[in-house]
Hints:
By secondary structure, the protein is an alpha/beta fold. It is 53% helix and 9% strand. The protein folds into three domains: 8-215, P-loop containing nucleotide triphosphate hydrolases (Rossmann fold, 3-Layer(aba) Sandwich); 221-293; 302-386, Winged helix-like DNA-binding domain superfamily/Winged helix DNA-binding domain (Arc Repressor Mutant, subunit A).
Amino acid sequence: MSSIYRRPELAAQMSRQLLNPGVLDEGLRSGLFLSGLRRTGKTTFLLNDLVPALEEAGALVMYVDLWSDTQTNPAVLVLAAVRRTLAELQTPASSMLRKLKRVGSADVGAFGFKFGFKIDSVGTEGGPTLARALTELVDQARTNVVLIVDEVQQAITSDDGNQMLLALKAARDAINPRPGTPGHFIFIGTGSHRALVSELTARRNQAFAGATSVPYPVLDADYVGHLLKRLQQEGAVRLPTLEVAVQAFATLGNRPEEMLKALRQLSRHLPPGGNPDEHLPVIAATLRSTAADIELMKVEQLGSLATAVFERIASTKGDARGLFSADAAADYTKAIGREVRVEEIQPIVNDLLAANLIMRKGHGMYGVTDPFVQEMWREKKALDDTL
């Protein structure tokens, strides 16, 4: 049994809705945004299930993860992915061309694609726009072109990222409405911050306003049953019931890595005669707290002022504003027991941003990057206040 839990039915369903939409799914061509907490299996599903399903259906798929290099401008990462694809399609022996030939979507003979521009100049000043490059790509491939951007919310942390989203919208609008277009441009964005991903489609000033935003379908009881079955095949005998294991998985935020840790601890530390159904919930609750503690420890390592700034953001309902105000500096002064000057705050905020602990949500607005961490911080804060 494979160690990767596959979801082919879900992938096939999504592929059909995206590439061959019925009347009720036509809006997906305006863009699809999936949101879900970190480490819930989104990227695994994308790479192992959705991308193969889309390619099997004849689509040309590009994938880029904006968290693969958080120090690099998101626009640079997206442009690099598009340019790599264009360059590969100019190579007759490329695997991407072979895939297109296999599904019969492009008739390129023994030669690769020929574009009417220099690939390295795509998206640069004076060079071809993304809209032009993607239009030529669709016309030569004669199929649907899908761009998947993982952790898409990172794009709105910079002006260049916002401009990149506008450029992708322009490509969509240039390609999809054409009568008799040989293919469509389909944009899929995934993110670990539900509020931010939702805002990408809900706010009128966003490039993909009006596109579809839905929660990522998290792993469920079928996945937990898959794990228990694998353990049985390996000879494990003292296992929890499916019902208790599913509850533990929910406690852990439906995160596969954390569930594996919980089952590993149960296997190693269950005392003789112990009841797995009694011990697993305790292990899950402990791991839930520990997972957040690791992230919060990163804050503490940045110093007391970083902790005070983070706590101000984490305690705010909605967007945190006024981090650099005189009132905020006075609150930080009270929290850490020394005077805090306003000019000290910006470097600390930059450190928190660089560590992916907080993110900029707009001009002067900030939020905690991982809502799970924020939730656990609030639970601990509430507990401390009662003691």
